[in-house]
Amino acid sequence: MILPDIMNAMVLEKQGEALYYKQVPLPYPQSKQVLVKVVACGVCRTDLHILDGELSNPKLPLIPGHEIIGRVVSTGDDVSLVKTGDFIGIPWLGYTCGKCKYCLQNKENLCENALFTGYTLNGGYAEYTVADERYCFGLSSVYANAAGAPLLCAGLIGYRCYKMMGENISNIGLYGFGAAAHIVIQMAVFQNKKVFAFTREGDVETQKFATKLGAVWAGASNEAPPCMLDAAIIFAPAGNLVPAALRNVDKGGVVVCGGIHMSDIPSFPYNLLWGERIIRSVANLTRKDGEEFLKLAPAIPVKTETQLFNLQQANEALEALRKGHIQGAAVLIMP
Length: 335
Hints:
Elements: E1 6-11, E2 20-25, E3 33-43, H1 45-51, E4 68-75, E5 87-90, E6 93-95, H2 101-104, E7 115-116, E8 128-132, E9 137-138, H3 154-164, E10 171-175, H4 179-190, E11 194-199, H5 204-212, E12 217-220, E13 229-234, H6 241-248, E14 249-257, E15 278-281, H7 287-296, E16 306-310, H8 314-322, E17 329-333
Helix pairs in contact: 3-4, 3-7
């Protein structure tokens, strides 16, 4: 195919400001890289944290977006894992060094020299993007479209959080019922777990949505569920939910903080933690997480709820996400 010299993109020039819709040069794939025609790109809360300055030192100017579905249209040198015409998914983790102590311990999600799509690498709020083929995922045909975009972050981080809760759990609390939670609940129900969904106070629509997806109970985050939880995942970036979740988690239970950024956690009495309760965070993802989850997703099958926006509506999509007006996940589609 004949490729253009320029492309349309939404660009972050300065943190704290809106994105600019502009034309930029088409990127060129280097060794091990592929050029991808973007089909769709999910809009993630992490994008908001980058725009708002809650995550520091992004590459500027920056094309955000790290939940990318696209088709390979060109390859650089030494590309062997994918070929032109393949549909692939491009996630948050874009590069690791393979040499630091974390990489050598099979903890590439903690790599000291990692690069991240849509943060320190240009991402998918554009008509085209480049990516290292070693950090891309092959896709089931059912997900080679806008519906697959949320799987590349909400799904992958949700899956890693889900694994971090441990085994032999039955009652799961999900705090913040957005893009990740609406995927996690499908995994949990598939495995015969009971899910208790916690939302913003008064958010009846989201509570109905959670119940529709299989939650046995849905209520406000300041409410107590009808029974003690074996584990909980906090997806909302609100530190006050940590002690709230601890109150509802039984002895030996785990509270997993799934966000890349969270407001300060308020002090709480030690008795909430006592009883061998555990608080842990989840950082980034590994390629193994992606391979496992993308094999599991079509077997369930995971079905995403998406609200679609055109590329130039990225600021509108981000504002809707900020205000909690997205049910499921927001996704940008390319012209």
